[in-house]
Design goal:
5 helices; about 550 residues; 3 domains
């Protein structure tokens, strides 16, 4: 026999009570009502056991200081590593952190500081060091990424395999950084890579089985701004990575089999600048919007996001207020509040919260007057100036509160926004309300994690479940993107004399062409509007971008 959960036991108790307290006639009379009640209870039970718990625990400080969320209860805090007990563990655990838990039990599986991967006990995972090239890894005695969203962990299917993504620099870029200290101001990240972890190894403590696989090399990327959103099919992921300065965004399709660069999109504004040590990207609760801020650029970028196709659209740029009165220094005081650090949507997606060095703002995205849409939630530090470590990244907890990270690690408490769905002062800024009251370690910003509980959004026409991953080379399409002529070839003989159909994103058939095997054909799409189209042939589909 198996142990019954509390939810299932409750359902059985209700059934027993119903039968014992009713006569036969009443049971028959009320059976339909009872079926509805029982169905509702089963749905609650099913939802409770199906909940993805990959994000139940989040790391937010040195020594593996963590917070574990359990439904709507206050998070339980603790630390994984007792002080000085593990000489191989980096006490410096800053903004480049990420972690993931078991999806069924919520038990912590692994965590990273962006350069090293640790197991659930705080030991260095087998083959888990040097997640970045040698020169940057050995720059400091405690290898760790100081840049927000420097790493991210995603499941690789459901067989105990995981991807760890790291954003860093090559050895040649390292040489440029440190031999051109003044240069032209451009010191970008230029290497995005992934590693594969098998959690079935080492009695469940895990092992890195594939390492340092390059996704982008010698491409100028921001040191910050890496986040993922679950694909509309419910099991794959979209990984978005920001470029340096220009608003160019690389979108990768992450599946259990591979990671492929799916789309590169560029927007005319804003230019974020070269100072990219701070910043954050995020998705709305329903996955339909994407937002990004970066360092000294006082602009908030927001765009609609299509979870089916990984496409950003309807871009908007908002000016973030700059406070000039906070820091007690001679003018220009504004330089002390010019750094944008954190961005997060409210649980109901009505507001966006922004942290700067000394201020926290709420932005009402449904307010057409962008000037009055801003409300300052907190003006100035949340502790004494001497101890204030400045506001950092934002994290939306499973209890629907927003947790405010710190740019530095001084102190062992973080402030919280208790009611982020409420407008203005009703959002409830709570000073130092998540606490880890110990002198052993400091707390920082919260680890970088996507929303693991975002569910399916299907169908994604014209791609059915089977077609959505069929991007094989049996159809060659080029150039893509294109502004005019689209060439295509069918290389598989079994598709001889097949039809190639061109659809728009609404599923409307625009063209139908009969083609020969191993013969180049073409379609002129210059008269079509810019956007996304799909070329389909015998159950295989290719995404086309007209620009």
């Amino acid at each position: 026999m198996f142990a019954l959960s509390a939810s299932l036991k409750f359902i059985l108790v209700v059934c027993e009570w119903f039968v014992e307290t009713q006569t036969t006639e009443l049971i028959l009379c009320n059976m339909n009502k009872f079926r509805l009640v029982l169905f509702a209870l089963v749905m609650v039970f099913t939802k409770s056991i199906a909940q993805n718990k990959s994000g139940n625990t989040v790391i937010f400080g040195g020594g593996g200081v963590y917070a574990t969320f359990n439904n709507n209860l206050p998070p339980v805090t603790g630390q994984i590593i007792p002080p000085f007990s593990n000489p191989n563990f980096s006490d410096i655990f800053t903004n480049g952190a990420s972690n993931i838990c078991d999806s069924a039990t919520g038990a912590l599986l692994m965590f990273s500081n962006g350069y090293v991967l640790y197991d659930a006990q705080g030991g260095k995972m087998e083959n888990g060091d040097s997640l970045v090239p040698s020169k940057i890894f050995h720059l400091n005695s405690d290898p760790q990424s100081p840049y927000s969203q420097g790493s991210l962990i995603l499941p690789k299917g459901s067989n105990g395999l995981y991807y760890v993504f790291t954003n860093t620099i090559t050895d040649s870029m390292y040489d440029y950084w440190f031999t051109n200290p003044f240069g032209d101001g451009r010191f970008p990240a230029n290497l995005l890579q992934y590693h594969v972890i098998d959690m079935n190894a080492n009695n469940g403590l895990g092992k890195v089985v594939q390492k340092n696989v390059a996704l982008l090399t010698n491409v100028e990327m921001s040191k910050v701004g890496m986040m993922a959103c679950r694909h509309a099919n419910g099991y794959d992921w979209w990984l978005l990575k920001q470029a340096l300065d220009t608003n160019l965004i690389y979108t990768f399709l992450v599946t259990k089999d591979t990671v492929v660069l799916d789309t590169i999109q560029g927007f005319s504004a804003p230019h974020f600048g070269y100072l990219d040590l701070q910043g954050q990207s995020c998705f709305s609760t329903d996955g339909s919007k994407y937002a990004f801020i970066q360092s000294t650029c006082n602009k908030l970028f927001v765009a609609d996001f299509d979870r089916c196709y990984g496409i950003l659209s309807t871009p908007k740029v908002y000016t973030i207020p700059i406070d000039s009165t906070t820091f007690p220094n001679p003018p220009p005081q504004y330089i002390w509040d010019s750094i944008s650090r954190g961005v997060c949507f409210s649980p109901n997606d009505s507001f966006i919260y922004i942290t700067r060095e000394f201020n926290i703002y709420q932005f009402d995205i449904n307010n057409s007057d962008s000037a009055s849409a801003w409300y300052r939630v907190k003006h100035g530090e949340d502790t004494t100036l001497l101890l204030f470590a400045e506001y950092g990244q934002l994290y939306k907890g499973l209890d629907n509160k927003i947790y405010i990270g710190k740019a530095g690690g001084q102190g062992s408490q973080n402030s919280v926004i208790d009611y982020p769905n409420n407008k203005g002062g009703a959002c409830g800024f709570c000073r130092k309300c998540i606490r880890y009251d110990s002198t052993d370690y400091f707390t920082f910003s919260f680890a970088n994690m996507p929303d693991f509980n975002l569910g399916k959004k299907e169908p994604c026409w014209p791609l059915s479940n089977g077609e959505i991953l069929k991007t094989v080379n049996e159809i060659l399409v080029y150039p893509n993107p294109t502004s005019g002529i689209l060439y295509f070839e069918i290389t598989n003989p079994k598709y001889k004399n097949s039809k190639v159909e061109l659809y728009n994103v609404l599923g409307q058939l625009l063209r139908s062409e009969k083609i020969q095997t191993n013969k180049k054909s073409e379609i002129d799409i210059s008269n079509l509007s810019n956007g996304i189209y799909y070329l389909r042939c015998v159950g295989i589909c290719k995404k086309i971008i007209k620009e």
